[in-house]
Amino acid sequence: MSEECCVPDEARRGGTARRVELSERRSAEGSCCAPSVPAELTAYADGVVAEDEDACCGPGASSAVKSTASGESEVRPPWWRDSALLPSVFSGVLLLTGYVFEWSALPVPALVLQGVALLSGAYTFVPGAVRRLLRGRLGVGLLMMIAAIGAVLLGHVGEAATLAFLFSLAEALEDRAMDRAKEGLRALLSLIPDTVRVSRLNGDVTLPVTDVRELDILVVGAGERIATDGVVVEGRSSLDTSAVTGESIPVDVAPGDPVVAGSVNGAATLRIEATADGRDNSLTQIVALVEQAHARKGDRARLADRIARPLVPAVLIAAVAIALFGVLIGDPVTWTERALVVLVAASPCALAIAVPVTVISAIGAASKFGVVIKSGEAFEQLGTIRTVALDKTGTLTRNEPVVVAVHPAPGVTREDLLAWAAAVEATSTHPLAAAITSAAPNAPAAMDVVEDAGHGITGRVGGRTVRVGNARWLNASEQSDTAADMAGRGMTVVVVEVNRRIAGLIGVRDELRPESAETVQMLHAQGLDTVMLTGDNDRTARAIARQAGIAAVRAEQLPKDKADAIAALVGIRPTAMVGDGINDAPALATATVGIAMGLKGSAAAIESADIALTGHDLRLIPVALAHARRGRRIMTANIALALAIIVVLFPLALFGVLGLAGVVLVHEIAELIVIANGVRAARRPVLARGMSTTVAPEAALTTASIQAP
């Protein structure tokens, strides 16, 4: 119904430029909607409204959500109180009353009422159609306008009013479906507080969140939202991150722990050093990813446009040809009337909305359970995936090495072995050092500590000389079988030597995420193949793969190797790559669909990916894949129905089987069916219903968060 769907891509892409212009103008005028919302995000929130004002069929269409002066969002009221529906309702009531008078043999009042009904319905789409025509654009509204004018000239005022009423009503209902999709983005923006307390030398001061800069010390009280990303420098508390990540379990934080914007602080006051500006943090980056869904389109959306764009002028030419045929055979009235009916019958309204409504609903629903999809193209391609490649470290595993095995030599206790190793590792920055020191938090202090890069570390602990390092540096031949067994189970073997005798072995491993094996099982249950790509050594990679249930493993892969491997897989069948690190970025960009591990992923990975997970639960991947396949099926059904309507109605209209009123009624009912079918894509996937991905009630993403591209 929205004629924007029928215009060239170049016109549609103007929306992005419009948002940029609006952002720059607001920045220059200092007229942001609220001091708490970053200017570029406010421009986006209002830019969608500005774009829609140009795209709607007339002044009757309005946005569901408008930013108020306070920065809050005004949500569209229930349909029975929605002023945008009033012209259509008014037109319908007058039309029905007019027909009652006509059936009562009162033609004059019937004609007056039907005429007013026609004007009321036409008010919602004729002004927009005229504006487009002046810009050289042809749209569905133009076909409806010509058909209505022709019907009036032929004396069929009632049928013209029926056309205007049904088209207006279907348009208004579609606007509601589209507008509901925009509410979710405002919900994300509402997670940013208006103001924030910042610690200064002369005490705490309250500032607009847009004035927060990196390295500022934020003071966050109990129950307050965190304004931007940062690191805790003072205080211990728990954070509710459900509105951002979908995780329902509070996260404990202490000095040194990172925190993300939009999280709600628990019972204690925290002092947080900002690691990002108030207008540029993880939450605004998520919103920016969502915005990109407006700029790109899926293959099927382009297919619908390719059909609809030439169809509009073709229908106009066909209608003129039919009318001329009537002139040639001497019956211009009959064939001109049929030409007008054909004009309506072949209008591609349903085709124009077949994909956008589905994409809006599906992408918005995905954002509700923690999957941010950058574009309609990415959503459609996600539904074609047959192979899923997964990175190991940080994706299948926690990327937090822990001690999982301790094998002391005869005469050495487990506690002593860990204490000696932790004592000398206490000052080391090596990733394995943290795992060992965590396993023995009460270790004694070491002296004369010297680190030998690439090998290990040496120090004195209680009069003993302790060396901790790898098996290449310290010969553990006495426990070689044990070391081989540990390595075979995916552990990194750390050798501990005391006074030049091997005191034992410590096994450190980056443990598999608890849901990794279940995720792989869910993917296999959907008929998808899985493969692991990792830069880790082959033995460790295969051990982790066995635990996860993955048979295909490609280990010791450099970033280019990963990209080449993905390119080879894509050449065989559509492949998704899941990763989180900078080294995964080339592979993510090469894949049919790249999926980044959200908030813990690197900026390069998120930028290269088509999809980002805002939570950390890997089970979101099979959920998203199933969701996309279902959306793709709905899109296919919508396109097929839209084309079938045109194919069936055209000959019926051409040969006079159906009149103008009948064609209009069938056409508009079909469009409502397409809209209703597309909205089904907003339902929460069955696989996601048992997962702990609930969103905080005060910030729930109501239906969908992305306008269809």
Overall description:
With 709 residues, the protein is α+β, with helices and mostly antiparallel strands. Among the domains are: 195-277, Calcium-transporting ATPase, cytoplasmic transduction domain A (Distorted Sandwich); 374-398 and 513-613, Rossmann fold (3-Layer(aba) Sandwich); 402-509, 3-Layer(aba) Sandwich (Calcium-transporting ATPase, cytoplasmic domain N), CATH 3.40.1110. Helix content is 49%, strand content 16%. Helix 3 runs antiparallel to helix 7 (157-189). The longest helix has 35 residues, at 620-654. The two termini are 15 Å apart. 53% of the residues are buried. The model is unreliable at 1-74, 293-297 and 692-709 (pLDDT under 50).
List keywords for this structure.
single chain, 709 residues, alpha+beta, Calcium-transporting ATPase, cytoplasmic transduction domain A, Rossmann fold, Calcium-transporting ATPase, cytoplasmic domain N, 25 helices, elongated, disordered C terminus
Furnish the topology, listing elements before pairings.
Elements: H1 9-29, H2 39-55, E1 66-67, E2 73-74, H3 86-103, H4 107-122, H5 126-134, H6 140-153, H7 157-189, E3 195-200, E4 203-208, E5 217-220, E6 230-234, E7 237-240, H8 242-245, E8 251-253, E9 258-259, E10 264-265, E11 270-274, H9 282-291, H10 299-329, H11 332-345, H12 349-354, H13 356-368, E12 371-373, H14 376-382, E13 387-391, H15 392-396, E14 402-408, H16 414-425, H17 431-439, E15 447-452, E16 456-461, E17 464-469, H18 480-488, E18 492-498, E19 501-509, H19 516-525, E20 529-533, H20 538-548, E21 552-554, H21 559-572, E22 575-579, H22 585-590, E23 593-596, H23 603-608, E24 611-613, H24 620-654, H25 660-679
Parallel strand pairs: 13-20, 13-22, 20-21, 22-23, 23-24
Antiparallel strand pairs: 1-2, 3-4, 3-5, 5-11, 6-9, 6-11, 7-8, 7-10, 12-24, 14-19, 15-16, 16-17, 17-18, 18-19
Helix pairs in contact: 1-2, 3-4, 3-7, 4-7, 5-6, 6-7, 6-11, 7-13, 7-25, 10-11, 11-24, 11-25, 13-24, 13-25, 14-24, 16-17, 24-25
